[in-house]
Amino acid sequence: RMEVVEVTPSYDKTSTTLQCNICDQFKKTLVKSSTSPRLMAVTLRDGNSDFKVRFNLSTYVSPSVKPNASQPVCLGISNSNLYLACTNDSSPHLVLEEITGPLNTIKAGDPHENLLFFRRETGVANNTFESVK
């Protein structure tokens, strides 16, 4: 007799953290708003690279993710407790969430699952991100 047991997918943080900037296909870079904890996409002129938001890209592993699949990651703003998150509303959008504790393991259904993105390499230095949710 065999029983089917459903396993809740979990994602465990690795020791790999990369520092990066994020921009779109139009070369608009994410910068912090001076008036609120928001990010804006703007085109920066030469010499203004200090305004770019730097992210810590933390990688995760999961037994439920197949080999050669997209890499699960979290994107936290360097030197802060702010992370990019995707809302799961009827019209999903990106928001900043403040997280004070460690993010060593994130399970499906956790409140922090919206912080996880699948990263796909789409070129030499290009990546795309899709919410795990």
UniProtKB/TrEMBL annotation:
Write down the Gene3D superfamilies for this protein, in alphabetical order: 2.80.10.50
Provide one Gene Ontology cellular component.
Answer: extracellular space
Q: Which InterPro entries match?
A: IL-1_fam, IL1/FGF
Give the GO terms filed under biological process for this record: cellular response to lipopolysaccharide; cytokine-mediated signaling pathway; fever generation; immune response; macrophage chemotaxis; neutrophil activation; positive regulation of cell division; positive regulation of gene expression
Kindly list the places in or outside the cell where this protein is found, as annotated in its UniProt entry: Cytoplasm, Cytosol; Lysosome; Secreted, Extracellular exosome
Can you name one GO molecular function term for this protein?
A: cytokine activity
The protein's superkingdom reads: Eukaryota
- Keywords in alphabetical order: Cytokine, Cytoplasm, Inflammatory response, Lysosome, Mitogen, Pyrogen, Secreted
Q: Does the keyword Cytoplasm apply?
A: yes
Q: Which Pfam families match?
A: IL1
- Name the predominant localization: cytoplasm
Query: What family classification does the UniProt entry report for this protein?
Result: Belongs to the IL-1 family.
PANTHER family attached here? Answer: INTERLEUKIN-1 BETA (PTHR10078:SF30), INTERLEUKIN-1 FAMILY MEMBER (PTHR10078)
- What name has this protein been given in UniProt? Interleukin-1
Designated gene of the protein: il-1 beta
